[in-house]
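in:
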């Protein structure tokens, strides 16, 4: 019979010590995890493209000409990435759950798109093994997959020139062109990673697309659907606009201190940067072409430049960040009112352009019984606003409730709402105004809404996280 000594009694009375949390190994991170951030997946932008700069930055920018990070840069990456990891718990780690498909248990929305369709993905398994405190995970080095992406083609009925909806994919690597006559994707411009904003030359020969991966403006030859030129920008770009004569492209630079880069399209050079307060979000050219308007989220400012002199004309401040803007065209062609979407506002402010004064605000309705969405909002419960081609209706998106709403012009009487895909981010119209195309960033498709019947008529599959779109007459042949 074992004798219980006073020491053994004392030992048995001690509370059980919690198991030590697994530690995150830096060497494994540097050699096995960090390279995943540079992997190119077919159809997706690289993690690095979205997280090297801007509001979501946590990776160090690579040194010029370098293909990987130095040891010092890797240490900084390691410390930054640790914020998105719960050691020992892959299922609680944002680094793993945010880019995982929602159907596989991942978060509902990721602004960088869904990189892994299941937890069987070797990249996912490798990171999970590291988070658990283990070693390198699966040994297979080739963890990328290739997707069969058929090349769409224009219908025989399409002439040499015609209107097309240009849909960018902010977490993808291509731009989709949609024929409003059939509502089919008829062309795909590949090779522009993390493409964001698009503008078309007046003659339809070129598309100008902001490339967030390379911090460039990419020029696309429409006939060949190939990128011909990369113009370096002063910083990370967001959206852009073009002058009516096509001679100038104005690009919002989405990092401090804030600027609008001005591109001369004849020389294809970045000729100047116009300073604004705070990182740029969007730029617009007023209906008469006389002014360039820039909004800043960080600066909470709306800055107006004289397009002829490219000098600041006036500025407004708001309590929140300035996001999309729609412009009312008066009978003489000048701008009447601006409809300004603001951070954390489920609706828009109405601003008189002539007096630079806010005259009213409109709040979008909360549909009874509909759950409010908070995934992918990014501080913007309402993002996307535009007036119909005939000037009779203002259309506005709700990211909270996944709908697009219509208001009559000029009185702004509510006409109704149409449910669309998740996180509607931007919209454009068919030339006749009978269809509105809503880019649904959380669904990876474009919702087509019939503006007469107020019903969604089709969902057009596009790329990862579609955001900005335009309608333009392009010279495809």
């Amino acid at each position: 019979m074992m004798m219980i000594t006073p020491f053994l009694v004392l030992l048995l009375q001690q509370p059980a010590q919690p198991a030590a949390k697994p530690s995150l190994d830096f060497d494994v991170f540097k050699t096995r995890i960090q390279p995943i951030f540079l992997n190119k997946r077919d159809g997706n932008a690289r993690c690095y493209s979205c997280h090297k700069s801007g509001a979501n930055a946590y990776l160090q920018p690579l040194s010029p000409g370098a293909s990987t990070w130095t040891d010092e840069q890797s240490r900084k990456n390691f410390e930054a990435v640790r914020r998105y990891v719960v050691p020992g718990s892959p299922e609680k780690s944002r680094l793993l759950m945010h880019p995982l498909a929602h159907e596989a248990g991942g978060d509902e929305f990721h602004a960088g798109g869904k990189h892994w369709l299941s937890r069987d993905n070797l990249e996912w398994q490798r990171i999970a093994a590291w988070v658990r405190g283990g070693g390198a995970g699966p040994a297979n080095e080739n963890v990328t997959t290739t997707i069969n992406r058929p090349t769409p083609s224009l219908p025989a009925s399409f002439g040499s020139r015609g209107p097309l909806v240009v849909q960018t994919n902010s977490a993808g690597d291509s731009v989709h062109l949609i024929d409003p006559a059939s509502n089919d994707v008829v062309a795909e411009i590949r090779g522009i990673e993390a493409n964001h904003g698009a503008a078309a030359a007046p003659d339809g020969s070129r598309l100008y697309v902001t490339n967030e991966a390379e911090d460039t403006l990419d020029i696309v030859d429409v006939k060949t659907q190939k990128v011909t030129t990369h113009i370096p920008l002063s910083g990370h770009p967001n959206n852009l606009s073009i002058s009516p004569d096509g001679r100038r492209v104005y690009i919002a630079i989405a990092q401090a201190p804030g600027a609008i880069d001005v591109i001369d399209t004849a020389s294809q050079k970045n000729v100047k940067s116009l300073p604004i307060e705070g990182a740029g979000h969007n730029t617009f050219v007023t209906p008469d072409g006389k002014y360039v308007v820039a909004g800043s989220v960080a600066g909470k400012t709306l800055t107006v430049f004289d397009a002829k002199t490219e000098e600041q004309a006036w500025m407004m401040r708001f309590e929140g960040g300035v996001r999309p803007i729609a412009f009312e065209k008066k009978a003489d062609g000048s701008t009447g009112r601006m409809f300004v979407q603001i951070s954390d506002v489920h609706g828009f402010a109405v601003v008189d352009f002539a007096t630079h004064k806010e005259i009213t605000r409109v709040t979008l309705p909360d549909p009874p019984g509909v759950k409010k969405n908070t995934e992918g909002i990014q501080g913007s419960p309402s993002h996307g606003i535009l007036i119909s081609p005939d000037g009779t209706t203002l259309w506005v998106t709700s990211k909270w409730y996944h709908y697009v709403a219509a208001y009559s012009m000029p009185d702004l009487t509510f006409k109704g709402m149409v449910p669309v895909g998740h996180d509607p981010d931007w919209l454009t119209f068919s030339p006749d105004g009978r269809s509105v195309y809503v880019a649904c960033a959380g669904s990876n498709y474009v919702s087509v809404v019939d503006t007469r019947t107020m019903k969604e008529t089709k969902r057009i599959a596009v790329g990862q996280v579609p955001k900005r779109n335009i309608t333009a007459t392009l010279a495809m042949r």
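note: The CA atoms of residues 341 and 348 lie 5 Å apart.
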